[in-house]
Amino acid sequence: MRLDKMLSECGIATRSETARAARAGKITVNGLPVSRPDCKVDPEKDEVFYCGVRAVYQRFLYLMLNKPDGYVSATEDGRDPTVLELLPEEYRTRGLFPCGRLDKHTLGLMLLTNDGVLSHRLLAPKSHVTKTYAFRVKFPLSEEDVTSLEGGVDIGGYLTKPCTVELTDPKEGYISITEGKYHQIKLMLQAVHNQITYLERVSFGPLTLDPSLARGEWRPLTEEELKTLQKEARMPENP
C-alpha cells in the first residue's frame, strides 16, 4: 500500500499533507525517514510515524451512526443521499457499507463496517439477532393488538415470528423483532389496522444507540462493543 493512502485511511493526514511532511523529513518507516509519499509500506507490519505520531492501521472499521431522516441505507443511490455521505472522505474510500437496512424515514442506530464476514453472520436469519425500535402510532393499541403482534401477524402472505411489545403509552412503546423483512414493522402495525408515525432503532443485538450522538453523528465502536458483537456473531474477537 502507498504511504499516503495508508495515512489517509488512518485519518491522520491527507495525501497532500503526507507529501509535504515527507519532503520535510517528518515521516519515518521502521525508524528511517522517507521522502516520497508514494513509497510502499505494509500497514500491518511496518512501523510508521507521522510528525511523531504512530499511524495505527485498521483493516476493518466498525462505526455506530445515528441515522437521520431522509437518508437511505445504501452505498449509493441515484435520488436520495446515503448514510455513507455523512462520513468524511477518508472513511468513504474504505469500502464501508450498512450492516442491515433502515427505511428512508426510520431513524436511529446503524452499524457501518467493511467486515463482510461479521455482517453476514449478524444478518443471517439463523442468527436471530434482536433489533429493538421505539415507535409511535396513529391510534391507541389495545391489549388484543399487542397480543396479535407478539404472536405473529400476516404481512402480505408472510406470518411474522413472535416479537415483544412494551407499551409506555397507548400510542407509544418499544417493539423487538428478530427478523428484518422489508418495511416489516410498518406492515405489522398495518395488520392490526394502525399506522406508524415514528420509528427509531435503539438497539441492534448487544449494541445500544449512544445517547450522546446527535442525528447524523457517528463514532467508532469501542473495543468492548466490538467484542460483544463478535460474540453475538459467534466469531473470533480478532478476525
The gist of it:
With 239 residues, this protein is of the alpha+beta class. It has helices spanning 3-9, 15-23, 89-92, 116-123, 143-151, 184-191, 223-232, and strands spanning 27-29, 32-33, 48-50, 53-54, 62-67, 97-98, 107-113, 131-137, 164-169, 172-177, 196-204, 207-208, 218-220.
CATH topology of the largest domain: Alpha-Beta Plaits
Cα distance, first to last residue? 20 Å
How many β-strand stretches?
13
CATH architecture classification of the largest domain: 2-Layer Sandwich
Structural class: alpha+beta
Average the pLDDT over all residues and give the rounded result.
93
How many structural domains?
A: 3
What sort of overall outline do the alpha carbons produce when their principal axes are compared? elongated
Could you describe the largest sheet, including whether it forms a barrel?
Answer: 9 strands, mixed
CATH class of the largest domain: Alpha Beta
